[in-house]
């Protein structure tokens, strides 16, 4: 469970957003592909993710920590089942690879 700010905006093309980020001074650090299926559930959002390696995982997003725990409980999980980790830490935990080996992951690389 974490409380990082996220905001979603619509873009017309990948090239457009890359150009904008580069103009703002950002440098591409890593690329990690994943498939995501999102479900609105009980006032929150449950997202099922599958990356190119390792097992699939779910993310629960809600207004606050108590709402996340409530949704998790409705799905059959307890608070101690929940982990607040990012993609890199998840891949390291589930695959045994080191951090540098999971910074750039692509489905095309796994064929």
Q: Briefly, what is this?
A:
The chain has 111 residues and is of the alpha+beta class.
Give the helices and strands as they follow along the chain: HEEEHH
Mean pLDDT across residues: 91
What distance separates the N and C termini?
33 Å
Helices, by number, come to 3
Shape, principal axes of CA atoms? globular
Task: Indicate the multimeric state.
Answer: single chain
Largest sheet: 3 strands, antiparallel
Our estimate of the beta-strand percent is: 15-25%
Q: What is the gyration radius calculated from CA atoms? A: 16 Å
Major β-sheet strand ordering: 1-2-3
Secondary-structure class: alpha+beta
- Low-pLDDT parts are none
The helix content, as a percent range, equals 25-40%
Compute the number of strand runs.
3
Give a structural overview.
With 111 residues, this protein is α+β, with helices and mostly antiparallel strands. It has helices at residues 14-23, 65-74, 87-95, and strands spanning 35-41, 44-50, 57-61. A hairpin with a 6-residue loop joins strand 2 and strand 3. The mean pLDDT is 91.
């Amino acid at each position: 469970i974490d409380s990082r700010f996220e905001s979603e905006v619509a873009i017309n093309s990948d090239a457009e957003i890359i150009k904008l980020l580069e103009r703002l001074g950002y440098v591409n650090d890593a690329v990690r592909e994943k498939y995501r299926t999102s479900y609105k559930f009980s006032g929150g959002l449950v997202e099922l993710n599958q990356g190119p390696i390792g097992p699939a995982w779910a993310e629960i997003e809600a207004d606050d920590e108590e709402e996340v725990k409530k949704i998790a409980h409705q799905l059959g999980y307890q608070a101690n089942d929940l982990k607040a980790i990012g993609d890199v830490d998840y891949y390291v935990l589930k695959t045994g690879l080191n951090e540098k080996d999971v910074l750039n992951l692509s489905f095309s690389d796994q064929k």
